[in-house]
């Protein structure tokens, strides 16, 4: 993989020109794209910006995010060739920081569930996850050092885990979703993928200018609460091994670790997440559903058909439960700094007919808390991640704990 932190250091020292760094990514795309299929479209040549902390950094943009220089097709034939006039604000944040947008990465249709053509760089017979498949795979394959994705259920953390990269789903609305194709306005969250935790922290700092993301070091002896989310269903042995490895490494490195039982209303919030998501999806995709119904990808179309009867009263009750869940979850963080749980039910599933399951992610998306995937280990050549969650708004704390865990895992090998 290409380290953003390493590129920045080499550019600052004058060992590498920004244009040479961009050329490195272009060459890697040329070499790997036919085997990974991470991009919908990409530049054949590009120049680095003259200024900015991300000059020389090639970035991939998930193809539901508007770009003025590339089409935005949203993984759907309905929008084939669609060309926005303007960049989404989150893309402009990257450009103003000096990044070079190198292309659009694949997405499931409207960032939902129908798999893309992208293959897992670790084993092409396994899914890279979804819906941010292309962004996770492009970073994992060493094509680009930074990519944008989005999460409505688990579409940043899960593909990061399957592809073995670091990723953050920030606190809700830390990054703007204007210019991003909406699926659920209460859930959609823009996130980042990078080779390591320092890379995504540097990306966030450059984009937001927030001082708390500058020079993120590992947390000192964090208090970690382990949450196994039994209410979310069975976990596969690989995921349990990944979590156990994270716990052991953290304890050896000086963290205090305890098992946490989540409050009842937080568990209820997990249950009602799909009600909020599907109710809002019917409004966000109302034109497509009414005017181009048969062109909607089959798995998404079937889900929309099935949930067409959701009522405002069901939605309002689900939102009430979500609000109560957030209050109760806030109390959990009185006793711990971060929560530790599975990033996915297991390693990437075999076959390309599924993108995996978001059942260990969706609660945290609804709660709005920052989540970070840290690659924990490999089992039979496939990565397994661990997920860290911090209090809402404490994205810097989530990243610091993730750096602690990343360092601890590196020291345990």
TrEMBL record:
It comes from the Bacteria. This is Amidase. SUPFAM superfamilies: Amidase signature (AS) enzymes (SSF75304). Residues 44-396 form the Amidase domain. InterPro entries: Amidase, Amidase_dom, AS_sf. Belongs to the amidase family. PANTHER family: GLUTAMYL-TRNA(GLN) AMIDOTRANSFERASE SUBUNIT A (PTHR11895:SF151), TRANSAMIDASE (PTHR11895).
